[in-house]
Amino acid sequence: MGKLKRYIVFLIGLFINSLGVSLITKADLGTSPISSIPYVLSLNFPFTLGQFTIAFSLLLILIQLIILRRNFKAEHLLQIPISILFGYFIDLTMVMLFFVDPQSYISSVIYLLVGCLILGFGVYTEVLANVAMLPGESFVRAVSSTWKTEFGTTKVAFDVSLTVIAAVLSLIFAHRLDGVREGTIIAALLVGFIARLFGRKLSFLDALLFHSNEGQQPATVSASDNTCSSPLPVIVIGRQYGSGGHDIGKALAEKLGYHFYDNEIIQMTAGSTGYDPQFIKDREENMTNSFLYDLMSQMYVYSETQESPRDEIFESEAKVIRDLAEKGNCVIVGRCADYVLRDRPDTLKVYLHASEDFRTERIMKTENLSREDALQKVRRMDRRRSDNYRYYTRRIWGRAQNYDLTVNTEIGTEAVQNMIRELLEIKLKEAGSPA
User: Which partner from 62, 185, 301, 359 sits 20 to 30 angstroms from 382, CA to CA?
Assistant: First the structure.
């Protein structure tokens, strides 16, 4: 039953996809990169866009067979009926949109943008179904898996190649650029970006539609593991840059006899992802601009097996944090740990902050920077941590409701530690957990 629901969702996505392609094409500013070659051919030969789409898709499937050879699986043949259906859907939606005839450049742009929105939602729906890929994306996967290339880069190169070939064909057949215009570039930039946004905003749909429990962690440890059925205490600390969160967390862990994890998480993540520790350090909790990040990482929405490095780092660190929390009796600093462990009992969530002047003075001393440089770094790091937190948690960084305790570290490190310890004792006593 679950598989049937996925195929139904995929077919709906396929139709939405074709509707988006048709509307973009009707906007008369070019078409999407994957449809650019079929569209140019349809303008110069007596066959429809849908028919040329089918022929081009079959060609891509044949090339996949040549590339993959023995690795070409029987399931890949499912692309054939999908391609045929997609082609007929395109012709159907082109007829359905007979009324779309933009008379001005502004109306063309509006139709183009609406088409990109529809196509982006169609791509998201297909990815949500997770049962098959269209030949274009499957071709990119075949290339990246065979020659060990990075999926996102390969997808960009593929789209650029299609656009260039379509432009050359247009010049050969029509002696002018026809079918490849600014709309092709806009669609290339926006569609994956929109699909990625839908994926983030509608992430709950997978569990809602398909009852997926993937990624959920048990709240307790089994008694058969010779551990207490109630989780052992964990303290997670979010902190403004320069507030002293690392030092306070480390000193607190030593007093409690707990394990302390901050940079150690980087090493553990490096072991599970294969990334260099410095590569991880440069990207964790360091979102410069979520909009640009989504734009740059949009190609990964088409991949079933690969995701952007930053997303992979976040998910790997989250897994490390959950594993460490299962062992209990530890202090974990940063990395959205309050969100990762939001449903885990006996987790004390703390946020440390201080005035900008206090933190600037502290960074001047600890990092030997001038006041201006220290102030700029404090603001830059706070902004990046805030963007990173909001992007992955959809919460406001530092908001009191997300934590059990928020403390201004200007009251002194000893006072902060004492407050955390007292609250921990109260929390453990109420939960009846071991100290």
Answer: 301
